[in-house]
Please model this.
Amino acid sequence: MTDINQQTRPPLHAPRPSEAAASAPADRRDALISCIELFFFAYRDFTGEPDAVLEEYGFGRAHHRVLHFVHRNPGIRVADLLAILKITKQSLARVLKQLVDEGFIAQRTGADDRRERHLKVTAKGAKLASRLAELQIRRIETALAKAGPAGEGAARDFLLAMIAAEDQPAVRSLLRIGAGGNPGATAGTTGGDPAKGQLP
Amino acid sequence: MTDINQQTRPPLHAPRPSEAAASAPADRRDALISCIELFFFAYRDFTGEPDAVLEEYGFGRAHHRVLHFVHRNPGIRVADLLAILKITKQSLARVLKQLVDEGFIAQRTGADDRRERHLKVTAKGAKLASRLAELQIRRIETALAKAGPAGEGAARDFLLAMIAAEDQPAVRSLLRIGAGGNPGATAGTTGGDPAKGQLP
DNA sequence: TGGTTTATGTCAGTCATGTTGACATATTTG
DNA sequence: CAAATATGTCAACATGACTGACATAAACCA
Model:
């Protein structure tokens, strides 16, 4: 198997044609493209460690997402989970059923509206969710540290701004985040009660 | 269908037990957990627009990744692509075959070593790759702008630091990135020729 | 009250993308 | 020439997404 880390060949990249010219925009474009790639590699490694743990339980990425958001939002309804994950109820059903059957998540009929199912993690589920979160927290903590103290806010602003504009109010509400670091940029959109209306 | 954006219910989150206590670490933990969620939402939206375009062609995420790295690394060998993507040759074969059959990628037998296949995009492939890259570039450009001018470097450092330490040399080389923004943090690891040895 | 809407669950089939394992072919290398 | 290497290919399988159809219970409303 060709290891990515032991090669004795010339650099992979032929200099791109536009690169030699004194073109500032081409350099700029290159920098942005490398951000695309950084984001790809970063996300892959971000999920890598949890995936290894989940495998011990016979779970996958989908289980992690469900467990995480139920852990973070005790009493969440099925419909809310679907809205957050943006998957179909059939997709959710498969993994949720496993998590419930194996005792990681408990369901309870809604008191107000008895059609609703409210989900929360069991002690067992909380333990696994915390273990997985710990791995990602540590990685993020280290990465933020390397971005510097001032860089932490910037990194958060960057991630938030990467989210589609139409989803941002919901995400801000879900995460209890105020207006972004650069006020004015989203002015006009920030005119809502941050704690109400976006997600149930 | 419950829309994520029109609800009239109380806030989803019950305040977590640890939240009321004057615990700085719990707040810190919460902030980091919201980064986990930001990263999840950000990556999903990051790939959302390209996915919609790819669908027009009957392609998926896997096709985009292959097309992207071939576009960025003309003449790349199959083995190198496998090392970058970290998938099996069987997985690669399926999507690569489609891209070749449909004229987006061309193969050429290696001049030095005739066992090797060197891949590059065709004009048609370059056009699609550029179109997809443009979508992601614009999103990143906007997001970096919102992180502020000083935040741009921080965001890049953050993403790079999110990558597993053992992959960083290879990624730095692939992206032609020098040592990270915070010198000293990775000191000792940075002692290599940046343009050689990591990837072919 | 009774019909409609809503929240949820479930069956059945399909698709995309990853995996393992086995094996074939061409070419380079020792 | 034998062994190692780079690539390709067949077959089977797992995961996690999708669509479409239908069932049930509860709430809402005219």
Remarks:
- The longest helix of chain B spans residues 24-56.
- Chain B is about 60% helix and 5% strand.
- Chain B touches chain A through 92 residues (CB under 8 Å).
